[in-house]
## 1
Amino acid sequence: MITTGDGDDSVGMREHQNAEAIGSTIAGCNSREEMVSMILECKHVWTYISEYLDNSLSPETRELVQRHLEHCEICSAILDSTRNIVILTADDRVFELPVGYSERLHSMLAEEMSGNRKKPDKG
């Protein structure tokens, strides 16, 4: 079980709290589609993205997240983006920067921080 230091916040505790909220929400639904979309709100899915990718959610929660992802383009895009970030950060290849890149970057950052950098024309 994952904890955040105080011992009370864990995936299991979060799943239990969300399950209680889900139970009270289901009673007010008129159709299956409405129920599926209301069972997990986007903010709940976002808290589960990491565990979803790690396959560490309970089967019931994983199924609810999966159903939400099937109907929500925003959450699906967040899932894909998170998956891509994990893949990129796990890639141990080293890319060589062009000659002079570091110097140009440091120069631009120094100019930006001092307020001397010219703003590009917008028109």
## 2
Amino acid sequence: MWKVLVVICTIGNPCTMFVEDPMKYYHTESECTIAAEVKAKAMMKTFEDFGYQIQSEAHACQYISDQKLT
């Protein structure tokens, strides 16, 4: 299973890592990567709408073994 990670850095603030809440798990890395890109773009727009200047952004997917999901 895979989960989305998004890191956003804004000017004058520390970089912050976000995960989906509630947490969503994806069956394939490609499915997760698409979701991560969509989520990151939406979050960057929200930050910009609130007047933050984006310094940098990164998004990725982290593999979670099935045993940890119990």
